[in-house]
Recover the amino acids of this structure.
């Protein structure tokens, strides 16, 4: 949430309950030019004193930082630099400190330290160790460190590049998928072999429309571990040939629209060509694509597709939140186990119906 000195703001930190009080605290931060952490405990009736009447029943810590235009590492510039990175970054931010280090940060890439303004060597070493583990665990959390009797609370988080989506096939049902993905801030590309299918009128919000023959996919597209690929051309041979190309890339998600028997047929043809899909390939390929939400119409199917992609990149199973045993924003072992059971290789399990 960005607050300016004229009392205006962009974004939010709640559903509208905390913004008024945060605005008053922000004025203090602007005046003193010093970061400040405010805690809202909505579990107690005392929150009524703020005049906000929260019913969230939780604790919210909000770090308010000044933006100095003369500082090359001020929060606005800092986060702009993070968002432009093409690799995952692990960030540690001090929320509370007995030594007045609130707001200090340490930014780590998989290869090196990108930013470090932590002054305590022992704290720095422990934070670096925890940030290094974050690239595998992907578990955002607040941690408390006790160094020589002083307690410091640090928020550690993994910031990953934005998801990019490539839609192969520009049919009418691809349009809501493109629009919904773009509304989430994803980078969206739509490609087809027929120029009439990818007119700008059909995909006004897409970042790129590409007329590309299937044989040039690996040449014309940059497909990374943060790229989701959706095959929805309704042309079996096109989807098969595109899949043959995609399994050689780093994409973690390949979705195929249509009944599972289409993918079964593709596998049979691949085996005749000497192409054997690995367990990791089965983990990446989702056929039929989408979460089971009873989608029928194109807009409903788009919700199903985008929701599955989101769950895949978040390492979630896509189940009901009411069945979770822990906080809704935190992965737990039960969720991970469900994810493994559902997604690792569903094609190794056959029912009496042959599915």
């Amino acid at each position: 949430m960005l607050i300016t000195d004229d009392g205006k703001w962009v974004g939010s930190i709640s559903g509208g309950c905390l913004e008024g009080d945060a605005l008053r605290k922000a004025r203090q931060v602007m005046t003193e030019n010093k970061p400040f952490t405010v805690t809202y405990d909505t579990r107690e009736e005392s929150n009524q004193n703020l005049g906000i009447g929260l019913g969230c029943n939780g604790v919210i810590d909000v770090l308010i930082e000044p933006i100095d235009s003369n500082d090359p590492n001020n929060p606005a510039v800092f986060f702009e630099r993070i968002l432009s990175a093409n690799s995952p970054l692990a960030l540690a931010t001090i929320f509370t400190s007995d030594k007045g280090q609130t707001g200090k940060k340490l930014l780590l890439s998989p290869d090196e330290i990108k930013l470090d303004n932590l002054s305590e060597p022992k704290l720095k070493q422990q934070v670096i160790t925890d940030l290094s583990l974050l690239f595998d665990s992907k578990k955002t959390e607040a941690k408390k460190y006790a160094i020589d009797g002083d307690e410091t609370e640090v928020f550690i988080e993994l910031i990953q590049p934005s998801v990019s989506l490539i839609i192969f096939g520009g049919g009418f049902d691809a349009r809501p998928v493109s629009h919904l993905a773009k509304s989430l801030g994803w980078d969206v590309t739509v490609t087809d072999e027929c120029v009439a299918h990818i007119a700008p009128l059909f995909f006004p919000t897409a970042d790129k429309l590409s007329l590309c023959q299937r044989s040039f996919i690996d040449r014309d597209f940059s497909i990374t571990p943060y790229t989701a690929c959706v095959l929805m051309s309704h042309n079996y041979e096109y989807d098969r040939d595109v899949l043959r190309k995609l399994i050689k890339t780093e994409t973690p998600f390949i979705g195929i629209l249509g009944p599972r028997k289409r993918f079964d047929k593709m596998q049979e043809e691949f085996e005749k060509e000497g192409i054997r899909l690995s367990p990791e390939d089965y983990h990446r390929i989702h056929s039929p694509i989408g979460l089971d939400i009873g989608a029928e119409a194109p807009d409903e199917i788009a919700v199903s597709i985008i929701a599955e992609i989101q769950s895949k990149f978040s390492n979630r199973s896509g189940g009901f939140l009411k069945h979770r045993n822990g906080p809704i924003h935190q992965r737990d072992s039960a969720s991970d186990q469900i994810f493994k059971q559902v997604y690792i290789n569903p094609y190794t399990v056959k029912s009496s119906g042959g599915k």
Remarks:
- The mean pLDDT is 87.
- The chain has ten helices and 15 strands.
- The CA atoms of residues 200 and 247 lie 29 Å apart.
- The first strand starts at residue 2 and ends at 3.
